[in-house]
Amino acid sequence: MSRQKSSFKVNQPVSVAGDTSFSTSFTKAYSASTSRRSFAPTVFSHPETVTNTQTTVEISSQERKEVLEQFQSSDDFPASSGELLALRESFARHGEPGIDAAYPPSHLRLSDHALNQQLDDVPYPSVEGAEPVSPIPAEISRPSDLQPHLPVEDLEPPSSLPGRLEHIWPQFPKGLRDAPIAVVWEVTRICLHCDIDLAHTKIQYDPRWASQDFADLWKGLRRLDVFQGKSFPERPTAEAWQAALGSFTSRGNAVFLSLALDYNYEADGPLFHVRMQPVRLAQSYRLARRFGSDRFLDVLMPSPCSARNIPKAMKKDGAANEVIKWLTEKPHHFVGRRWMPFFVRDAGYRRQPVEFRLGGENDTLVYKDRVTFFAESGPGFQPLPRGSNYPLSTEVHRRRSEFKVEAMLKWLLQPEANSEQAHLKLFTRIQLGLSNTYPVFVFEPDQIRHQADDLKSPAGNVMNDGIGLMSRAVARRVRDELGLPDIPSAVQGRLGSAKGMWLLDVNDTGDDYWIEIYPSQRKWRCDFVDEHHRTFEIRSHAHELRTAALNLQFLPVLEDRASDKAGIRQILGDMLTKDLEDEFDEHKSAMQRPIEFRSWSHNGFSMRASRLYHGHVPFLGGLPVSKEETLSFLLDSGFDPTQQKYLQEIAWQVQKQKCDLLKTKLKIKVGRSAYAYMVVDFWGILEEGEVHFAFSSKFGDDDSSDILLHDMDVLVARSPAHYPSDIQRVRAVFKTELRALKDVIVFSSKGNTALADSLSGGDYDGDQAWVCWDPRIVEGFVNAPVPLPVDLKKYMRKDETTYGQLMQGFGRQATRKMIERSFQFSMQHNMLGVCTNYKERFCYTRNCVSDNKAILLSTLLSNLVDQLKNGISFGHEDFDQLIREELGAPLRLGDPAYKDDAWRRRDAPKHIVDYLKFSIAKPAIDRELAAYHKAMEQVDSPLDGAHRWDADLSTVYEDFRGIKSQSCQVLLTALIASIGEVEMLWKRKMAREKEDYAGRIKEIHAEWCKIQPKTLAKNGAKIDSKMVRLLEQQYLPDTEMSHWALLKASTAFKLYYNKSNKFVWQIAGRQLAMIKAMMTKGDGVPVLAMPLMYAALMPDKRFVKQYVAKLEGSGSDYMDELERSQAETDGADLYP
C-alpha cells in the first residue's frame, strides 16, 4: 500500500460584501504573524474613510519642482529611502509625466514595460466588478494596507528597532558613481573593514584602480589619509577580480557579490553589521546568465525568528515581523544600486538531518537565512528601450537596463499563466532559477517532447515521478561539454520549468537531439520561447561509483528488521573494528616511506573538487590552503615525515582530524555498498521487486570485485530513514536490454507503488539510494510493510491561497505580495529540526523505531519536509499538543548517550549506536591517538628521528653569508632586520584569534613580499645595484622563485626555525620546498610541473603498492599482459 501524506484542513471561503475589503479566511498561525503589517498613518487605518474609488490629481509643475529640489543636495542613492525618492527617479527618467501616469485605470492590463515604470508600494484599487475572493487574510487585505506609505522623516528614535534598521547599509559616495561595480564593491568592503564612515569621507574614483592587478587599487587607497595605518581585508582572487572588471564570467563561472549581516549586540546603532565578502567566482545559474550575475546579491543573515543568541532588541514582541517588513517592503540602496529582495531560503542549519549527530548540539549556533536581492537600478542603468519587455541578454554590467524585480520574476515564472498554483508553492519554484548549473545545449522547440501523462500503475500512482528520457545524442553532447570520460547514463538538470533526472533511452540509436518532459517534472507552465528556457542545464550526472559508508540512521532500522538482532550487532561491530585497524595500520606503514605517505595523504580526502574549481592548488601565504594539500606539497618536494618535525605535526593534525571525524560520524565502511541515482525502467523489462545494477568499472573491496550484480538479494535505502520500511530487500538481476545503464540503480515500473516512494517518500528527480549487497548484512533482513497513513489534520493547517487570488486582491502588486507573504511564512520558526531531534530522543529512550508512536512521528517529519512548498502551519503549541494527546510522553527529553564524549552509565550500552561508539570505536581511537602522540613526543634527539632543523634549508643563507663583500653583509643585515619586523607582525596578528585566519596570513604575507633589495636600499643600506639585479632576476614574470626569494626564505628558516617555526613555513614554505627539491639527492634532477598540470596529478596506488613490495623484497618485476604490452609499445627497456 502506498504511504500517503496525511490530509489537512483547508478553510472554506467566507464571502464578505462590500467594496473596501476582500473575503478573508486563513490560519490562526499566519494571521498572528501578520497582525502588525502596516506602518501607514492613522488617517489611513479606518475602513470608513476609504472608498472603492481612487481619485488621481495631477501634480503641479511647482510641486514637482519642490520635490526635485528637496533631493538635489542628497546622494542619488542614499542609505535610506522613501516614496519621494521613487517619485524623483520616475520624473527624471520618464519625461516628468503627471503622477496619474503611474496609476492607470484598474481595467487596463499592464504591459511588462509599464510594470517596470511603476512606483514602489503603489496602491492598486479593487478590481471593478470582481467577486469576493477567498482565502485572503484580513490583516493583509485591510484598507490601510492598500494605501501608500507616506514618507515620515525621523519618525522613530534611533534606539528603537525601526530606527536601528534605517541605517544598515553604508552610504554611496558620489565620487564612485563612474566606477565599475567591482571597484565600488571592493572600495566599500575595504572602508567597512577599516571602520571608515562613507557618509563623511570623500573618495574620488581613479580609473587606475580598475587595473587588472588588484594591488593597484590597494596602492591608490593607501595614498589617502583615512587609510593610513589601517589593515586591509583579504583580497579577491586574481581571476575573480579580472573577471569582475571584464565580462563578469571566467571559464564557465560567474562573478558574484555576497555579504553577511551579523547581529550588533550593542544597545544602539544599526541592528546588523555588514560584512562584505570579496568578489568571487562560482558556478552560475539561469537568472544570472539571463540578466547578469552583477544584478544579484546574496545575503546571509540571522533568521529573524531564531531564539538563539539574539540581541535584546530581537526579544521584543513583533521584532521578527519588523525585520521581515524592513527586508521586503522597501528597496535597499547599497553600493550605488537599488536592490529588492525576491527569494529566501534556509541557509542549511535547519534542514532535516540525514544522519545522527554523535556530538552535542551547538548552543552558540545562530540559525541563518539566505536572501537573494535583485538590482533594479543604479549608476549606468538606462531605461528599457521603448517597446521592450525585458533587457537584452547581451547587456554588459557597465550599461544595464532599469528593470523591476516583479518583471524579472514574470520572465522566470510566467505567473499569470500559472494563477491556479498556490502562491507559496510558486514562490519556491524561484529556486530553479537560482540553482547552480552548467548550461550545455539549447534545444529547438520541436526537439522538446512534452508528454501529456506520466507512467501510471494500475492503481493510478505515478511510477516515474521526476524523471524523463533523452536521446543518445544529447547524452553524448553532455559528455563532450562537461569533459566526461564516458556517456552518462543519467543526468540531473533543469529545462525551462522542468527539473529532475533524464535517463538515456536504451532503444535510441540515432543522432537526433530530443528530450522528453513529463508532467511530474513540470513545476509551472512555461512557454519555452526564450532560449534560456530551452537551455539544458546540468546540475550533476551519473558517475563512477565509490564504496559507501553505512549511515548511522540506518543502524536502528537494520537491527529492527534483522532476524538475528544480536548477530547483526556483532557483524557491524566486527566491520567497524576492521575499518579502524586498517586505517591505523595504513597510517603507521605510510609514515615509514615518503612514497607511501604521499599515497596516504591523498587517500580519503577530496582534493579534486577544489583543484578542478581553481585550476590549480590554492595557496595561503607560502603553503597550500588545506593541510592535506600541504602534506602532498611538502612530500613532493623531498621532505621525509620521519625526519621533518613540521611535516610530522601536520600529519598528526590530519590524522587527529580523521579520528575525530570517525568518533563524531562513526560511518562504517561497507566495501560492497554504494550510493547511486535511482532511475526507473521505462520499458517494462524488470518485474516488480527487481532492480538492475551495473558498473562502468570494476567495483569491490579486498575480497571481491564486480562489474554487475545478478541473481542476488540487495538492500536499497534512502536517507533520512525514519520508517522501518525505508530499507527494502529486493532482487538484483542483470538485463541485457538495460546494459547501457551503468552507475545508476534501475527500479521496476511495475506494481502499484513506485519503489522510490517506499524509501522515505523518495522520487526520481535526483534522489540517491544506498545499495548494499554484502551478504552478511543482507541475509536475515526482513522487509517491513509500508505503514498506513496517519491522520494529523487536527494539528496542521494549510494555506492554499493561489496566485490568481492574489491577482484579484492586489492586481499588479500580486507578485510583490507573493514575495512579502512568502518571506513572512518561510522565515517563521521551522519545526522540522525540532521534531527530528525529538523523534530521535523518543525512539532512543524506548529503543524502538517500529511501533505506532514511532510511525506517527515519522509521518509528521515526512509532512514537514516540504512545509513551505505545501503551506503547512505547525508550531510549538501544535507539537506540544500532539505529544500530549498522541504520545503521552514528556515534552522535553534528554539527549542520547552517544551525543556525549564518554559513557557515564554503570550498565553496558544497549542502543546499537551507543554500543558501536563506546564499546568499539572510542576506545580504539583513543588508544591509537595516545600511542601516536607519545611516539612523536619521545623523538627529542637532534641526531635521530624527526626534528625542526634541516641543514638543506639554510644552505642558501650560509652560502651568501660566506661571500666576502661589504655590500653583501650590509644587505644581509638589513634583510635580517626586515624579517624580524615581519615576524613581530606575525606574533601580533596570531594573538588576535577572533580575526579571520586567512585574512591575517594574507596581510602578513603581503608585508613579507615587500621585503625587496630596492626597498632596503631606500631605507639607507648601501647596496650594489649589480648584485641587486642578479638577486631580483627581474626578467622573471613571477619572482616567487628568484634568487632573492630563496635567500629571504633560507635566512628566515635559519633565524626562526625553532622559536617561530609556524611563521617560517606558513610564509616561506613555497621557497623552502624549492630549496629542498634542489638539495635532495636522488636519481636525476627534480621534475618541474606547471600549476595546472600539478593539479591534475595524483598518486598511482598500484605503482606505490608494487614499488613498496619490491623494496621489501616481497614483490617482483611482474607486469600483467596489458602493462607489458603498453610498455613495449612505448619503447621501454624492460630489462636494462
Describe this structure in words.
This protein is α+β, with helices and mostly antiparallel strands and 1136 residues long. Strands 1, 2, 3, 4, 5, 6, 7 and 8 form an 8-stranded mixed sheet that branches. A 6-stranded mixed beta barrel has the order 20-25-21-24-23-26. A 5-stranded mixed sheet has the order 9-15-12-13-11, with helices on one face. α17 crosses α18 (594-602), α21 (645-665) packs antiparallel against α29 and α24 (803-810) crosses α25 (814-826). The longest helix has 26 residues, at 565-590. The protein is globular and about 95 Å long. Mean pLDDT is 81; it is low at 1-155, 939-944 and 1121-1136.
* Sheet with the most strands, sense and barrel status: 8 strands, mixed
Structural class: alpha+beta
The rounded Rg comes to 33 Å
SS field, number of helical segments: 39
Overall body shape: globular
Total DSSP E strands: 28
What is the helical fraction, as a range of percent?
25-40%
Strand content: 5-15%
Mean pLDDT across all amino acids? 81
Distance between the termini: 71 Å
Low-confidence stretches: 1-155, 939-944, 1121-1136
